[in-house]
Design a protein that fits this description.
Blueprint lengths: L22 E4 L14 E4 H10 L6 H20 L8 H9 L1 H4 L3 H21 L3
Antiparallel strand pairs: 1-2
């Protein structure tokens, strides 16, 4: 049985079933720059990461929850196939954003490093490098 995603802090949160899609519609999100005047937009993994990387202070809870849910999905897939799961570019980007979280536990660190190494080996092989 896969373990939970390593948390930034200890909590007793229950597992939440996460959506398998990498996009969803958000209704209460406002970037504050007028680009989404109706407060409705499609949130992709890359958009959420861009927002998180460019945020100063606290991150909007909608974005944070979305990123956490996507990270939990990726980590569950890695744990189900620790020697073979191959992340895509967006998954690697998210994983790298939270990478320090996985370095706290030697087992998680080894699994996460292997998954990252596997991505890069495949990437270089696919691009003739």
């Amino acid at each position: 049985m896969p373990s939970a995603v390593p948390s930034a802090r200890r909590s007793h949160r229950q597992s939440i079933p996460y959506p398998s899609q990498s996009t969803f519609v958000i209704r209460s999100f406002n970037m504050g720059n007028g680009s989404d005047p109706n407060g409705v937009g499609v949130l992709t993994l890359q958009r959420a990461l861009d927002i998180a990387r460019n945020s100063e202070g606290s991150l909007d809870p909608t974005i944070s929850n979305y990123l956490e849910s996507q990270l939990a999905n990726i980590w569950a897939r890695i744990l189900q196939q620790p020697d073979s799961y191959l992340m895509n570019k967006d998954e690697l980007s998210l994983f790298n954003y939270y990478r320090a979280r996985f370095d706290r536990n030697p087992r998680d660190s080894a699994i996460s490093r292997a998954a990252i190494d596997r991505f890069w080996r495949h990437y270089h092989a696919a691009n003739g490098q």
